[in-house]
Amino acid sequence: MLSPGGSGKHQTMSDRGVLFLFSLLMILASLGAAVWLLMTGQAGTVDGLFLFLTALLSAAVFGLYVKYVIGRAMEAQKKAHAPAQAQAQSPAAAKPVKAQATPVA
């Protein structure tokens, strides 16, 4: 399959991107199931209550994963911009300081 730019290269989504989208889908499905259990009154039974709690737990677990992925992406972006900010400083500030020799007694 050709890309729209006509370069002839096939671009695929990274594994992290697929896992991120899958996690969002699972969060929506879990919350939807929890709402459905409440709306139909099935959460009032013992089995329905356990299904409701399982759906909420599943949404929470995938939500924590999404939070972790977003945090790592923001951290990587900060590291990518750090060298550009260091080069913007004056050359004198980036100059290494020579260590002074201490006399041995």
Describe it for me?
By secondary structure, the protein is mostly helical. The protein is built from three helices and no strands. The chain has helices at residues 15-39, 46-88, 91-94. α1 (15-39) runs antiparallel to α2 (46-88). It is elongated and about 80 Å long.
In short:
By secondary structure, the protein is mostly helical. Helix content is 69%, strand content 0%.
Distance between the termini: 75 Å
Mean pLDDT: 84
Q: Outline the low-pLDDT stretches.
A: none
Strand content: under 5%
Radius of gyration: 26 Å
Note the main sheet: none
Element order: H for helix, E for strand: HHH
Beta strands, count:
0
Count of alpha and pi helical runs: 3
Structural class, by secondary structure, is mainly alpha
- Anisotropy-based shape: elongated
- What percent of the residues sit in helical stretches (DSSP H or I)? 55-70%
Q: What is the secondary structure topology, with strand pairs?
A:
Blueprint: H1 15-39, H2 46-88, H3 91-94
Helix pairs in contact: 1-2
What features would you highlight for this structure?
105 residues, mainly alpha, elongated
